Amino acid sequence: RARIVSVCSQGASLVWCEERPPLGAHSDMSKCAFRFCICTRALEVGEQGVRLGTVRIVLHNSPEYQVLASPRHVFLVPATAGFATTSKFLLIWHPEKAKLTITAPSAGFIHSKVLHSSSESDFRKLLLGSVGLLSGLAPLDIHTSAVSNSGGLLLVSTKGAVNMVEPDGTQRHIFDLEGGPPAQGSPVQLKTFGGILACVLAGFLYLINQNSGRLIEKKILSMKEVHFLESPGEEDSIQFLTQTGIYSFSLSKPEDSSRPEPCLVEMVFEEACRYYQRRSLSSSKLTVEKLKKGGAFQAPVALATILQHSLRQKQKPARGLQDTYAKLLSTMSLELQSYMSLELLKTCVVCAPESEVESYCEELVEQEVSRILHSDMDKDNLAYLNSIFASFPKAAWKATRSCLQLQQNGDGLLVARATPEVWKKVLGGPQQEEGQNGVVPLFELICASFLRFKPKWLPSFVELTQQYVSISWAYSSKEGPEGRVPLYKRALGVLARKNKRSEADDEMELELLLCSKRPKAVLQALHLLIRLKRWQRVVEVAEKFSKLSPLLNKEIFATLLAEFAQHRELDPYLDTLWPLCPAELTASDILTIVLQHLPHSQEDPVPFSSEGNQLTVGLLKPLLQRVVQRPCVQDELYSDALQSPTFPPPTPPREH
Questions:
Q1: Which residues form the BLOC-2 complex member HPS6 N-terminal domain (predicted)?
Q2: What is the pTM of this model?
Q3: Is 243 in the same domain as 389?
Q4: Residue 430: is its pLDDT beyond 60?
């Protein structure tokens, strides 16, 4: 007693939507709207005839749907006269996975559910977790729907917009029909032939490139009612049936000047327009047409000619080009090959299965990062790099390692074999401003990658960059990256932006301060270690960095002497500390520092404190003896003169 509403053939099965009679004679309208079922049954064609399998219900208690089959999926499009609430989304059934996807493409809502049993195929149960989200959405705007040969669902809105809904539920805009919104009763015919979408509306035939959305051609037809025919194996021609006969329209054209230019050639002229407009003193607007006809600018014309020729010839040798252009083509051949391989890689990313997408993405990101590092680092390129690092962090990290050729040598030290040009891009040229509109400089991007994927390499990387800076720029140069904010401070800024602070971050801060080898940074690290009471490390740092300069040695020793005066934590390390005493420090200087930093006691001082943490002369005695017994600096200067047997000393021999 059911009535078939819509039917389609999906692989070796039939799928249909049927209306079942209401159970009660006086059922209310809201329940009547959900009396449809989506059913399927196998269809086997043998020598004895057609054999049908058992009926299986995909979805019951559903509203009315139009079923449209692609090779692997079935699209369920709500009927125009359906219930208002259910006309806000599409359903996509995946027979192989027994999965239903709910999608509202314009709102970006996608939800999938696997139907394990027949109890889960109830329409209302399917929507149970999504009712709140779906109720606030606008109804779908669908005038006509059809399935493309690539497996997507083509939708024409009442405003004339042509969109493609992919089997995963995402939507892509293709084209806006020029005739404006189709009339209420006027049909729109859609059919895909290879990569071309043919669309008939109100006596016009539109031929549109599905991938780029470009209008290839627009033809006026003498008839309004047209039905497209299947033409397997003949993707270069379109066949359609009309009241007067069957017609064929050929898509392939002879090689002539009327052939539409490739997208790349159009991009050349558009980019040239922007380039020349920025440098033009004239107020008149420069257009692509003026650029092509004017003849004043030869560079884009030459490049467009070469690209047109090479893209058409593909693997054939260059013929028919001017000698000048042929020479330029031979110079550009590697760049063209790189461009073509990049386009091929992008195609692979789009067409690849899910298991291979990640490896293709890594390769694509590496090529893009390498390309940007070898071109001008302007604001657009820097913003593009920021988006790459945000979207593909792991792939961007691998690309950075590859471009800078970062690796550990036999001694476990980090080495980089990047060219000076790449280093300059990494460190940010003199024109690069930090943090404009949320765009982070490249050095900070790389530091953030190190922190995420290889934190222990970050101090070594900062040290490497400082070595490159010291070679390329003078220490006090304001043009170099160290002339504004030191690199270690920039790396510390990245560390400070982390959401959660841990003990590892404290250790990283210490390493970054020490790897800079700057006096202020070393003293800051020393104070941080003292605050953390890591006395063994305090002594190691003091011993290592006191050798860098006499001034730093004096500052370090004065800091540690002040700590020694306040508590007894450094007592086990005194044999290591006293040799660090600077030569110019006298006994009175030492006593002054000690007296200035003695802890203030609230009680009257007593000779022997019960706490046992007071400083005694006995503890200072080895240091004072060491200073007193050390020969005076002035004595050392004049020791040769004082020990000379004769006065004045003999005249040194003259050198001829």
A1: 1-248
A2: 0.51
A3: no
A4: no
Distance separating alpha carbons of residues 533 and 539, to the nearest angstrom: 11
Confidence of residue 260 (pLDDT cuts 50, 70, 90): very low
- Give 12-51 as a DSSP string: TEEEEEEEPPPSSTT--HHHHTT-EEEEEEEEEEETTEEE
Dihedrals phi, psi of 541, to nearest 5 degrees: -65, -45
The separation between CA 35 and the C-alpha centre of its own chain, rounded to angstroms, equals 48
Q: Which residue has the tokens 């203030």?
A: 600
Distance CA 480, CA 149 (A): 57
Domain coverage including residue 465: 354-431+438-516
* Claim to verify: residue 379 and residue 478 sit in the same structural domain: yes
Contact by Cβ (8 Å): 196, 242: no
E-state strands within 245-362: 245-250
* Pair (495, 369) in one structural domain: yes
d(CA 209, CA 199): 11
Average pLDDT, the chain: 78
DSSP letter (8 states) at residue 386? H
Residues 505 and 585 in one domain: no
CA torsion, ordered 80, 86, 90, 91, to nearest 10 deg? -120
Could you tell me whether strands 36-46 and 3-10 are parallel, antiparallel, or unpaired per DSSP bridges?
A: unpaired
Per the CB < 8 A criterion, the answer to whether 62 and 32 are in contact is no
128 and 230 housed in the same domain: no
Q: What is the pLDDT of residue 7?
A: 92
pLDDT tens digits, one per residue of 496-551: 887 777 777 788 888 888 888 888 988 988 998 888 888 888 889 888 888 888 89
Q: Are 59 and 92 in contact (CB under 8 A)?
A: no
**What are 44's strand-pairing partners?**
51
Whether 18 contacts 39, CB under 8 Å:
yes
Is the same domain home to 460 and 578? no
Do the beta carbons of residue 495 and residue 505 sit within 8 Å?
A: yes
528 φ/ψ sector (left φ>0, alpha ψ -120 to 50, else beta): alpha
Tokens of 511: 């390493």
Question: Do both 417 and 477 map to the same domain?
Answer: yes
| Per-state percent for the chain, helix, strand, coil, to nearest 5 | 45, 20, 35
Tell me if 319 is assigned to some domain. Answer: no
- Asked whether 173 and 213 are in contact (CB, 8 A), the reply is yes
Residue at 633 is within a domain: no
- In-domain check, residue 646: no
Domain boundary among 106, 122, 140: 140
Structurally, how many domains does the chain consist of? 5
The answer to whether residues 11 and 58 belong to one domain is yes
What percentage of the chain reaches a pLDDT higher than 90? 2
Q: Rounded to whole angstroms, how far apart are CA atoms 56 and 40?
A: 5
Report the phi/psi class of residue 290: left, alpha or beta, with left for phi > 0 and alpha for psi in -120 to 50.
alpha
